[in-house]
Amino acid sequence: MVKLKEALESCQEEFFLPGNSCCAGCGLEVALRWAMKALGPNTALVTPACCLNVVVGLWPKAAPTFPFTNMAFAAAAAAATGMSAAFKAKDYRFPGKVWGEMTTLVFAGDGGTTDIGIQGLSGAAERNSDFIYCCYDNEAYMNTGIQRSSSTPHGAVTTTTTLGKERYKKNLPAIMAAHEIPYVATCSVSEPLDLYDKFKKAKSIKGCRYIHILAPCPPGWGYQSENTIELARLAVKTGSWILYEIENGIMKLSKKSQLLLDPSKRTPLIEYLSTQKRFSKLSEKGLIELQERLDRNWERIAVELSCQEDYQK
């Protein structure tokens, strides 16, 4: 874990600048700023249709200081595969130049990842294409009117689930881990040093790497913009958003989530959900079911970690 003093000393430079048109309190902006602090200037970013390719601004006054490519909704992973291959070809032809140091990064919303982009992402993962794919998850299609995505949680109100979503959230990190890629991680904007660490590690690994970040959205979730970090922190404290890494098939809980293996350490789920207007239609029965589902998930994780330890012995 990077130390606070070390992080502050090494993270002074900004690569995603002020003047962008992110909403106040946007989780996306926090996520991208810290990801780029870890990856550095020799990073080329691909983003499909989402909030990010709208808020960056128009050249020559755009917010990113790094190469930035807008891509069609379904094609981000395919484009990143080609971009990474191009950097390798350039490095072969012109050794000693910057091409061998380039990191290819996809930064996409949950709609462009869990729904529209999953085919290209699955193909890239199967090939073990050499890039980092990051989903900043605000749990709906926020840029086009707050419609539900497969990443929207059960019970959440959107413009297409006016009584609350019936289905449950798709577990994309688990799907990516099932591809047996070298690195999968989850992060939250409330834990920037953990996020920084994981992007640093991902940069040092070759092959397809997947990082999934909780990025709250004030207008989409229905809360005051100054509460973004506290809300994201509550998601972690309740155990509804679990911080972990899966490196070469081995799962490891991050420190903040490791503590929650003890059920008494978890904050009740209602403290997280009650702060958001999108859960205003959730019944008491629905809340109890969600809490029970969360507790069962933690029981399953505890068993899996125990079996993993036995196997390693």
Structure commentary:
This protein is α/β, with parallel strands linked by helices and 313 residues long. The chain has one domain: Rossmann fold, CATH 3.40.50. Helix content is 41%, strand content 14%. It contains 13 helices and 8 strands. It has helices spanning 4-10, 27-39, 52-55, 76-93, 111-115, 118-127, 172-177, 192-204, 218-221, 228-238, 255-258, 270-273, 284-312; strands at residues 43-47, 68-70, 103-109, 131-137, 183-188, 208-214, 244-247, 250-253. An 8-stranded mixed β-sheet has the order 2-1-3-4-6-5-7-8, with helices on both faces. Helix 8 (192-204) links the parallel strand 5 (183-188) and strand 6. Helix 4 runs parallel beside helix 6. The longest helix is centred in the last third of the chain and has 29 residues, at 284-312. It is globular.
